[in-house]
Amino acid sequence: MKSFFEGIQFLFVDVLFAPLDFLRSLELSSWTAANAINWIFMIICAAAIVYWIKQLQIFDEAGTENQDTTAHSFLK
Fold first, then answer.
1. What is the per-residue pLDDT across 12-47, written as a single tens digit (0 to 9) for each?
2. Taking the alpha carbons of 41, 45, 48, 50 in that order, is the dihedral positive or negative?
3. Is 76:70 a contact under the CB 8 Å cutoff?
4. Which of 3, 8, 36, 60 is spaced 20 to 30 Å from 44 by Cα?
5. Rounded to an integer, what distance in angstroms lies between the CA atom of residue 54 and that of residue 7?
6. How far apart are CA 20 and CA 57, in angstroms?
């Protein structure tokens, strides 16, 4: 049973966390490169929010959105 748990430890510590260890060591030489993944995710989220707001504005200007509080049967 001990070897089973040591196998799980090897999988997580030496295999699955290897990219995170690389980023941790990269931070000492270049903070920007180490945080590039975070910046990419923030840019993707910002673009999605801008797209969502533009779509909301399009539907609001067209008047196709039903803003009645009884739009759903469970709100009656």
1. 999 999 988 998 898 889 998 889 989 999 999 999
2. negative
3. yes
4. 60
5. 50
6. 40
First to last CA, the chain: 58
> What's the predicted TM-score (pTM) here?
0.60
Residue 37 CA to residue 19 CA, distance in Å, equals: 12
> Residue for token digits 């997580």?
12
Collapsing DSSP states into helix, strand and coil, what is residue 2? Answer: helix
Q: Which two tokens stand for residue 62?
A: 């067209």
- Which residues, other chains included, contact 35 with Cβ-Cβ below 8 Å and sequence gap of 6+? 27
Distance CA 33, CA 73 (A): 51
Amino acid of residue 47 = A
State whether the Cα torsion 24-26-29-31 is positive or negative: negative
